[in-house]
Amino acid sequence: MLKVSIIGTGRVAKGFISDLKAWGVALSGFVSADAGRLAAFSRETGLPGYTSLDDLLSAHPETNVALVVNANHQHYASTMKALARGLHVLCEKPMALTMKECEEMAQAAELSGGSLQINFEYVHSKMPRRLLQLVADGFFGELLSASCTDSRGHWWSGAPDADSASQTRLRRELGGGIVFHCGVHQLDMLRTFFGGFCRVQAYRSKRNSLSFYPADVPDHVFIALETPDGRSASLEIMHNRAPCWYRRHPQIPVEWAATPGHEYRLSLMGTHGSCLADFYGAKIHLFRFDQTNKDTVLERTEDFAADSQNELHHDMTGFLKRYLESIAAKGKPLVPISNALETMQLAFAVEESIAHGGPVMLPAEEPTANTLEKQPCATLL
Predict the structure, then answer these.
(1) Closest-CA residue to 102 (of 326, 349, 315)
(2) How many CB atoms neighbour CB 216 within 10 A?
(3) Which residues contact 10 (CB under 8 A, 6 or more apart)?
(4) Residue 251: exposed, middle, or buried by beta-carbon count in 10 A (0-12, 13-18, 19+)?
(5) What is residue 376's predicted lDDT score, i.e. its pLDDT?
(6) Within the chain, which residues score under 70 in pLDDT?
(7) DSSP string spanning 240-285?
(8) Which CATH number fits domain 3-118: 3.40.640.10, 3.40.50.720, 1.10.150.530, 2.30.30.30?
(9) Containing H/E element for 7?
């Protein structure tokens, strides 16, 4: 039987607690290093609060799962503590703030009686799962290239006159910035489709359109990725086009799926066909290549409008449910921790390219998502 603890007291923690209660999953309590937050969050959730995981486990030794949903810079310490106590851990993205910390977390998971899952839920949501099925069914033939666009508005979540130091989403040293807070999901998705990349190059303007963004955090970046066997993908992230949806004080009521400027699209191109997946528009348009007549035919459009927006591309609730089912049935997470390590390695490479403006090479390892024959990356440069 599962008994779940929560480490963190933010919006994700509240959402997960609501889900777990609805499913009838046993909850032992929550952990927060902010002693002043304990009483208020306990009143909000009806759960007991503790200032350390050790205290929680002393009171509830039957706890066997920890959901690490605190601030990015706290993920490493909280996860290492939970793994050392033999818990199964679901940790929010990004995994940690350095690649060394990510590797230590994976090593700790191997030595623990528990396991580690990083919450890269985008690729496990309904529309990406459908695309993965189409790939497996051979609709695209061999995947050759992909293009992804994510435009979502700026990330100054506080009041206009708030202290810039309090805007943690924009503080790169705390795991903020344009890659770790959103682009890492798309990088994980592209890596899953292509099996891995060996070269990345990030392009950005020398100045930001949004003057309140720190100089080391671009408000618009274009990322080119190359596989060892010569296939390509791109990711463009824009914070400088759409109206903001993230401001909480004062709240800006924007329906991001319907407001012009907000865009999340993925195009996959193969030897047999291509697609345009419009995640906010809830449609996948599928095209077939008629090589004989030298034409491209709209094969069909698959409509997902009957499903909720979050379920289509950002299904944290569904991912949590499938994760707990996997732990209960098999004692294992949904995917090996090696997948998350590859995604984080890719994200750190993109951050490095943003910082110095040049290409970054990645190890040409065997892919985890497919079995395509690969050549040494150096021969393609």
Answers:
(1) 349
(2) 13
(3) 69, 70, 71
(4) exposed
(5) 35
(6) 364-381
(7) SSSPPS--BTTB----TTTSTT-EEEEEEEESSEEEEEETTTTEEE
(8) 3.40.50.720
(9) strand 3-7
- DSSP-derived 3-state class of residue 68: strand
Q: Which residue matches tokens 């950002």?
A: 314
Q: Confirm if 92 and 10 have CB atoms less than 8 A apart.
A: no
In this structure, what is the dihedral angle of CA atoms 287, 290, 296, 302, given to the nearest 10 degrees? -20
Q: ∠146-377-190 over CA atoms, to 5°? A: 25
Residue 305 amino acid letter: A
DSSP state of 296: E
Contact criterion met (CB below 8 Å) for 94 and 344: yes
The pair of three-digit structure tokens given for residue 223, joined into one six-digit string: 């990322």
Span 122-380: which CATH code? 3.30.360.10
CATH topology agreement for domains 3-118 and 122-380: no
Closest CA to 361 of 224, 183, 222, 197: 197
The answer to whether 7 and 69 have CB atoms below 8 angstroms apart is yes
* pLDDT value for 364: 65
| pLDDT of res. 235 | 98
